[in-house]
């Protein structure tokens, strides 16, 4: 059971004391200038010392975080391995790397094209950030909403850096994505007449967040996994992709795989390849805790980069405003934005609500960091500090029973430590949540390397430099399906030439010429949390 | 120095800080996990675990990432359990009572021991949702099972060999697709997009210079 500190108890009393007066209070939204100011001073993306310049590769001269640079310019795991490309262990039309929502959606659509599809995943099918997405999925399907309004919300939230053709695709195909999921059997929250129950997310101007309680991603992932299995699509689990393979014309033609348990090296030949490897939270950029799943180590970015694909906005990360700051057992775990959509406010140690809780994520996270680092408004915790997320407001606004019905996962997560979020506020602090940037693609889903498609969090450009809540579950479906269809169709006309890994040798030569002696095995595959002091 | 407790990982004793979860205790002890570790946040069900506290009779179950260590805890992880997953075509099946009889007839062998419910790592009433499935009440089965993370502990404890999470998955998909009311506003919007209703609006928006877009964004009306 969680034991509050004396300081926390005193502060919590202040939160309780001001609660009634805060009920119904509309917190002012920041002006564009105020947002720019708080971002520049407090958002982790603006800390120059956390970055370095890339010396080789398609983004040479560009900046990325040190942790990513070490992998992009790391020592390829195939280096020094004997890899026989002449006798592939697997020979398929479409190889999908990654078993999350994007990979599963891609596999289903490629299967619809009649292609022979194989999914390879380093953990289990469904062990992915998709399953952890709690709050919901956006789509402009209500009378007062339109894809154009959705477009403007996402564009402004992304600081106008979104690639227009990708964002256009995202918003115009969103309603159909919801319909596709619904037809597969996903149970969305609906009113008795079938109307989708939708709420706001940070930065939305219409209530377009569809949800499945606060197990939205989990429900979507369960259904997609079930569908993949029903179709008999080959799934090779506990096997990572450690390098892409090209043919001698420079087109993507498969991947070198490694069994995560036995270390065995395997070769998969494929006419087209889809990278759906997800994000990078487990690289713990700038020492942040993360809300991401165990395998989120930017593998896809590394593989694509060595193969010659350009990255877009790899320097921009999303720090979710509300990671759990206490208890220590769940430090960094996601507290869904839906908690704020339902009315919970962000409150400092004196009981003052200091920011509109539904500003965009980057602004809200920066405001929390400012409150703690500059204004002395934080409450100390075992792992650092945090501010209060005043959850009891939710049932004062929406009625008793709302929390159990709409955010049961949150009730359960804190309940395990004796904290009843219906009665007590919780301590939160930003947590590393999402990779805004990634591999640059065109609207057909293809990267700069021919026949190499990308979908999901590994893509860069859809969300500009800051993603809105609910646009990620959406993009894995829209761009996952798109990549699956495109790669499936394309595979019908591909004539593979001799396979090669020569591009890896060339990359290593480049590293050498740049004076880099790579040490870090790359890709990372998994973090290492073993105790280091023994 | 933080207080430590003795935990027995697969029978071997390790001394670990008492604040750790079972999963972090394994890593503290030196395990580099590959299996039995997924989301680390209680959503994926990869880290099903069985434990007994020394001196106590009861066999307990949990998710390793969501459970704090205790003194004298004997731990065995269950990274995989052979659930039965029947294959079907969601477009062809219907939400009739027969479908459950055809695909998962073993649910009718339930002896009512309630071991599934007692073992559920999510605290769900598993036996109740199986009873709903037996009666073809799929919507109730779906509601009752909704928070399931499919860790498989219930099935590991079941004397009748039922794969509860898969039964519930079928019930939920039937509910989502066939039983839940249709969303007319969604169907209408998909149709409107197909007809190109918003294309001109979007194109004009995409053609605007940055300053104008910023102006539009900063002054857009926000639904209350």
Write the layout of secondary structure elements.
The complex is a heterodimer of chains A (534) and B (224).
Chain A: H1 6-22, H2 32-42, E1 51-53, E2 63-65, H3 66-72, E3 75-76, E4 90-97, H4 101-112, E5 117-120, E6 137-138, H5 147-157, H6 164-172, H7 174-184, E7 198-199, E8 209-210, H8 216-230, E9 234-236, E10 239-247, E11 252-259, E12 265-275, H9 299-306, E13 311-312, E14 317-324, H10 338-341, E15 345-347, E16 353-355, H11 361-373, E17 379-381, E18 384-390, H12 393-398, H13 402-406, H14 408-415, E19 426-435, E20 438-440, E21 452-454, E22 459-460, H15 471-491, E23 499-500, H16 502-513, E24 521-522
Parallel strand pairs in A: 3-24, 4-5, 4-12, 5-9, 12-21, 20-22
Antiparallel strand pairs in A: 1-2, 6-8, 7-8, 10-11, 10-23, 11-12, 13-20, 14-19, 15-16, 15-18, 17-18, 18-19
Helix pairs in contact in A: 2-11, 4-8, 4-15, 5-6
Chain B: E1 4-9, E2 12-17, H1 22-29, E3 48-53, E4 60-63, E5 73-77, H2 97-103, H3 115-119, H4 126-134, H5 138-145, H6 153-156, H7 164-179, H8 184-194, H9 199-206, H10 210-218
Helix pairs in contact in B: 4-5, 4-7, 5-7
What can you see in these coordinates?
- Chain A is α/β, with parallel strands linked by helices and 534 residues long.
- Chain A folds into 2 domains: 138 residues, Flavocytochrome C3, Chain A, domain 1 (Alpha-Beta Complex), CATH 3.90.700.10; 292 residues, 3-Layer(bba) Sandwich (FAD/NAD(P)-binding domain).
- Helices cover 32% and strands 20% of the residues of chain A.
- In chain A, strands 4, 5, 9, 10, 11, 12, 21 and 23 form an 8-stranded mixed sheet that branches.
- In chain A, strand 11 and strand 12 form a beta hairpin.
- In chain A, helix 5 packs across helix 6.
- Chain A is globular.
- Chain B has 224 residues and is an alpha+beta fold.
- Chain B folds into 3 domains: 74 residues, Ubiquitin-like (UB roll) (Roll), CATH 3.10.20; 83 residues, no CATH class; 35 residues, no CATH class.
- Chain B is 38% helix and 12% strand.
- Chain B is built from 10 helices and 5 strands; from the N terminus they run ββαβββααααααααα.
- A 5-stranded mixed sheet of chain B has the order 2-1-5-3-4, with helices on one face.
- In chain B, a hairpin with a 2-residue loop joins strand 1 and strand 2.
- In chain B, helix 4 packs antiparallel against helix 5, helix 4 crosses helix 7 and helix 5 packs across helix 7.
- The radius of gyration of chain B is 25 Å and the shape is flat.
- The model of chain B has no long low-confidence stretch (mean pLDDT 97).
- Classes of the chains: A alpha/beta (534), B alpha+beta (224).
- At the A-B interface, helix 5, helix 6, helix 7, helix 8 and helix 14 of A face helix 1, helix 7, helix 8, helix 9 and helix 10 of B.
């Amino acid at each position: 059971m969680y034991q509050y500190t004396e300081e926390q108890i005193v502060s919590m009393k202040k939160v309780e004391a001001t609660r009634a007066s805060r009920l119904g209070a509309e917190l002012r939204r920041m002006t564009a200038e105020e947002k720019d100011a708080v971002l520049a001073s407090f958002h982790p993306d603006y800390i120059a010392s956390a970055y370095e310049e890339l010396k080789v590769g398609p983004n040479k001269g560009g900046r990325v975080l040190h942790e990513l640079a070490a992998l992009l310019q790391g020592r390829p795991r195939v280096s020094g391995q004997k890899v026989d490309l002449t006798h592939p262990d697997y020979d398929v039309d479409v190889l999908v790397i990654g078993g999350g929502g994007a990979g599963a959606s891609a596999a289903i659509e490629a299967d619809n094209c009649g292609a022979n599809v194989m999914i390879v995943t380093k953990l289990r099918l469904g062990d992915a950030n998709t399953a952890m997405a709690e709050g919901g999925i956006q789509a402009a399907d209500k009378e007062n909403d339109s894809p154009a309004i959705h477009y403007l919300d996402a564009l402004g939230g992304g600081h106008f850096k979104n690639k227009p053709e990708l964002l256009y695709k995202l918003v115009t195909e969103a309603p159909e994505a919801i319909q596709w999921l619904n037809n597969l059997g996903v149970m969305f929250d609906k009113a008795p007449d079938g109307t989708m129950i939708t709420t706001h997310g940070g930065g939305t101007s219409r209530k377009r967040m569809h949800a499945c309680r606060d197990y939205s991603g989990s429900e979507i992932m369960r259904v997609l996994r079930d569908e993949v299995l029903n179709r008999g699509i080959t799934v090779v689990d506990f096997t990572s992709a450690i390098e892409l393979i090209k043919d001698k014309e420079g087109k993507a033609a498969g991947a070198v795989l490694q069994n995560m348990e036995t270390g065995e090296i395997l070769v998969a030949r494929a006419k087209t390849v889809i990278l759906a490897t997800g994000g990078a939270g487990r690289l713990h950029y700038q020492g942040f805790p993360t809300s991401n799943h165990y395998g989120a180590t930017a593998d896809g970015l590394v593989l694509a980069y060595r193969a010659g694909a350009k990255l877009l906005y790899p320097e921009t990360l999303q720090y979710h405003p509300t990671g759990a700051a206490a208890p220590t057992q769940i430090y960094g775990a996601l507290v869904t934005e839906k908690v704020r959509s339902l009315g919970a406010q962000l409150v400092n140690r004196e009981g003052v609500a200091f920011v509109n809780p539904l500003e965009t994520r980057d602004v809200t996270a920066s405001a929390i960091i400012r409150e703690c680092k500059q204004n002395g408004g934080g409450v100390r915790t075992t792992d650092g500090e945090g501010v209060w997320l005043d959850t009891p407001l939710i049932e004062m606004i929406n009625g008793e029973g709302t929390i159990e019905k709409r955010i049961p996962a949150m009730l359960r997560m804190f309940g395990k430590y004796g904290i009843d979020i219906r009665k007590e506020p919780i301590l939160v602090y930003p947590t590393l949540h999402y990779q805004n940037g990634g591999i640059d693609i065109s609207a057909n889903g293809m990267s700069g390397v021919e026949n190499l498609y990308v979908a999901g969090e590994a893509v860069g450009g859809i969300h500009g430099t800051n993603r809105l809540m609910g646009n990620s579950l959406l993009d894995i479906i829209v761009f996952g399906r798109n990549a699956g269809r495109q790669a499936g169709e394309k595979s019908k006309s591909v004539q593979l030439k001799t396979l090669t890994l020569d591009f890896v040798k060339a990359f290593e030569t480049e590293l050498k010429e740049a004076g880099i002696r790579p040490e870090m095995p790359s890709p990372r595959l998994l973090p290492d949390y073993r105790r280091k002091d023994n | 120095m933080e207080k430590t407790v003795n935990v027995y990982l697969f029978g071997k004793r390790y001394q670990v800080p008492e604040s750790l979860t079972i999963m972090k205790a394994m890593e503290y002890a030196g395990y580099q996990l590959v299996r039995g570790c997924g989301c680390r946040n209680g959503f994926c069900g990869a880290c099903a675990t069985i434990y007994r506290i020394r001196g106590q009779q009861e066999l307990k179950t949990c998710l390793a990432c969501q459970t704090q260590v205790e003194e004298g805890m004997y731990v065995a992880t269950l990274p995989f359990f052979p659930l039965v997953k029947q294959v079907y075509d969601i477009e062809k099946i219907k939400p009739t009572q027969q479908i459950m009889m055809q695909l998962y007839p073993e649910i009718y062998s339930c002896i009512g021991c309630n071991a599934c419910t007692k073992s559920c790592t999510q605290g769900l009433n598993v036996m109740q949702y199986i009873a709903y499935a037996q009666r073809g009440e799929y919507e109730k089965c779906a509601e009752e099972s909704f928070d399931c993370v499919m860790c498989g502990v219930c099935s590991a404890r079941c004397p009748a060999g039922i794969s509860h999470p898969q039964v519930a998955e079928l019930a939920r998909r039937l509910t989502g697709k066939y039983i839940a009311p249709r969303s007319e506003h969604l169907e209408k919007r998909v149709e409107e997009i197909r007809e190109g209703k918003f294309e001109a609006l979007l194109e004009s928006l995409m053609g605007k210079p940055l300053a104008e877009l910023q102006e539009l964004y900063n002054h857009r009306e926000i639904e209350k």
